[in-house]
Write a structure and sequence with these properties.
By secondary structure, this protein is α/β, with parallel strands linked by helices. The protein is built from ten helices and twelve strands. It binds S-adenosylmethionine (SAM). The site of S-adenosylmethionine has 25 residues, from strand 5, strand 6 and helix 5.
């Protein structure tokens, strides 16, 4: 008998992966965690039936969410990851010797424990001495922080369930307060392609714009996320994402990547016309 993992991307579109083994299924107070093994994507894990990370394509998401802000401001010392329980974003950040502290505020400790056991390829740097884990709601964690972080990465689930609060005005306003003058906020920004995701993306974009003078969007191709076309938000008080970046500076760091390169620091911000239109409509 064949076993398939199927995710509904819209009420009339489904995405399926043939599964070799359903390794684990666990219910936590926040969500359901499943781990699978597959031929094409290797090991992957889902939360409430939505794809989070696959062994084959996770590098695309994690490199793009971490290296774009790091190249925009090489002086980043204090970073905060909100969500990100699989550890992939932290893994990329620990590759910079210039970073002194990485806080991670993850609501669900079980995600971290499961990923430590079953997804060593993303969780391997969670034990780095610069990493401090806080098991609490990112919405609450950020309320008491002020003028401290040079970088906040919101590596969250979608804007429903536990992740809902991470797409609110209150949250973005508190991120602004928690950032230094050169601080950068990067968040996973949903997909522009299917209508319900595009609406979430527009809502997030217009809310972030209320607080941050620099408010940009960049893209990557992530095969296992709905439509494969995924966006990230880049917001800051004054740092531009690529205008003042010399590609040679990032190359000189000698960090090896499989997706990100210094050319994408500019190229990923060159958006297709239909995405530009969606963003213009969100923020006329
Ligand atoms: N790459 C992923 C994606 O977009 O599919 C995100 C992965 S990461 C596993 C998302 C994490 O956000 C989950 O572990 C979840 O527990 C965490 N999360 C959701 N809501 C949160 C909240 N309010 N505060 C902190 N962490 C939260």
């Amino acid at each position: 008998m064949e076993l398939w993992y199927t995710e509904e991307h819209t009420p009339s579109v489904r995405f399926s992966i043939k599964v070799n083994e359903h390794v684990l299924s666990k219910k936590t107070p926040f969500q359901r965690i499943d781990v699978f093994d597959s031929e094409e994507f290797g090991r992957f894990f889902t939360l409430d039936g939505l794809m989070m990370v696959t062994e084959k394509d996770e590098y695309i998401y994690h490199e793009m969410i971490a290296h774009v802000p790091m190249a925009a401001n090489p002086q980043i010392e204090n970073a905060l990851v909100i969500g990100g329980g699989d550890g992939g974003t932290v893994r990329e950040l620990t590759r910079y010797g210039t970073i002194g502290r990485i806080d991670m505020a993850e609501i669900d400790e079980t995600v971290v424990n499961v990923c430590r056991e079953y997804l060593p390829f993303t969780s391997l740097a969670l034990g780095d001495s610069r990493v401090h884990l806080h098991f609490e709601d990112g919405l609450k964690f950020i309320r008491s922080r002020e003028n401290f972080y040079d970088l906040i990465i919101v590596d969250s689930t979608d804007p429903f369930g536990p992740g809902e609060g991470l797409f609110t005005r209150e949250f973005y306003g508190n991120c602004h307060k928690a950032l230094t003058e050169d601080g950068i906020l990067v968040n996973q920004h949903e997909s522009p392609y299917y209508e319900s995701y595009a609406r979430s993306m527009q809502r997030a974009h217009s809310r972030i714009r209320e607080f941050f003078p620099v408010c940009r969007v960049y893209q990557a191709h992530i095969p296992t996320y709905p439509s494969g076309h995924w966006l990230f938000g880049f917001a800051s008080k004054r740092i531009e994402p690529y205008e003042n970046v010399r590609p040679g500076d990032w190359n000189a760091l000698g960090i090896t990547t499989r997706y990100y390169n210094a050319g994408l620091q500019t190229g990923a911000f060159m958006l297709p016309n239909y995405v530009k239109e969606l963003l213009n409509r969100a923020c006329p």
